Amino acid sequence: MNTEAFEEQARKKGFSLIAGIDEAGRGPLAGPVVAAAVILPQGVCLPGLNDSKKLTPRQRERLFEAIYVQAVSIGIGIVDPVEIDRINILQATRVSMAMAVDNLRPRPQCLLIDGTTPITSLLPQRCIKHGDRRCKSISAASIVAKVTRDRIMQRYDLDFPEFGFGKHKGYGTKAHCKAIETFGCSPIHRKTFRRVREYVSV
User: Fold this and answer.
1) In 52-197, which ranges are continuous DSSP H helix?
2) What domains are there in the chain, each with its CATH number?
3) What is the pLDDT along the chain (202 residues), one digit of tens a residue?
4) What is d(CA 153, CA 175) in angstroms, rounded to the nearest whole number?
5) What share of the chain is helix, strand, coil (3-state, %, to 5)?
6) What is the rounded distance in angstroms from the CA atom of residue 79 to the CA atom of residue 119?
7) What are phi and psi of 131, to 5 degrees?
């Protein structure tokens, strides 16, 4: 299926404002989970658009800027580590996606969501497995979410340089896990996650 097929199917049902939704940061040991919702205009041209995980940082940055120039609307949702620990990462991801949708102006008429889990919304929605590589608007959302989160983690690197957040963005690399063993947890670590909870001060 081509990357515009899902949007085409939605347009045939009478929808013109179609939001693609994806998140970044479900797996890391630290930092927020960030979701993006993107409404693209029909016929948008974004050469090289793809799942953010299949792009280099430079390609993501270039497409991020192009998406912001061409998109009809972009919404961001961010859930911090404290809330992730309180409600769990799956629920936090769903909340961040719903927040991203709520921040869209104009409002979308339907939602195309990466993955298999719907979100809380009264809008028509369709979950698409591997949507970040199969659907244009979800690909755009994956890039916006990833670049936004990476920039947040680079900022946290200035506050907590001992953990190396600027390099691994909070993922559980060997160097990151070693830093947790050495320095304990920072305020942005997810304290319910394995490889972190063992070092939470009682």
Assistant:
1) 57-70, 81-87, 89-102, 131-134, 136-159, 165-168, 174-183
2) 5-160 (3.30.420.10)
3) 478 899 999 999 999 999 999 999 999 999 999 999 999 999 999 999 999 999 999 999 999 999 999 999 999 999 999 999 999 999 999 999 999 999 999 999 999 999 999 999 999 999 999 999 999 999 999 999 999 999 999 999 999 999 999 999 999 999 999 999 999 999 999 999 999 999 997 4
4) 16
5) 45, 15, 40
6) 15
7) -60, -25
